[in-house]
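#structure-requests
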Amino acid sequence: RSMPRIGSLGLVLLLCSNAAAFSPQATLLPSFVSSVRPNKFLAIMKAKETQPSPTEYGQAHGTSRRSIISGGVGALLTVGSVPKAGNAFFGIGEQFQVYKEEDVGEFDGKLPRYGSKDIMRKKKHGTSEEAVMRDLRWGCDRELADKICNFNRHFAEHAGYFAKTKWLSEVGEAETTYFDSVTGKPLFIAPRGRSFAEFVRESKVHGWPSFRDEEVVWDNVRCLRDGECVSLTGTHLGHNLPDKRGNRYCINLVSIAGKPSA
């Protein structure tokens, strides 16, 4: 199918206004061509002072395949299915492949803290040296976790996956430390700087555990220039999706359901 020719900004605005019109069984994957880089997409959303929804950012779930190709300048919109793992393995597309990595340089104190794309180089087990540990916390699925953590750069557990686990029933008002599902190293500590209710509310609104700057263990976590959030040992965690309140790290629960290393 084809759509009238429209500019890239017009397409983004169209996504925002009409996302709800798509079937919940469809995966929405905005794949920007090289002239529209992911950081430009985020800049557009930030200028609007709105938070990209999972649909807008390509993490909405689905099983059917269809495509809509725009003749507009600067964008290609694809709606379709992606590989599944227990109907819970969905993705963001390949738009980050065209992003040119910038020099990380010295840490200037501004968050997020960036890391080199070399962190995610191929290792013995995907992007990690070993598989996800057994007996993940909260009943998280190990097979799904291993695919997302180690053999993936753009995919996510489906929105609201955590509701099927014991996560919210086993954490509470006190700070909880979230450990890497591969290495057991601490990655996030929440809630910090806000109440538990606020932390849960934000996570439910967006569909994934959502952390803020002060809740990240920066000794073990980095962001790449395309927004991907990873552990220093190569575990894919999620993405940084900034909003008007600042950085928001949208993280897969299966990536942070590990038990502390000895």
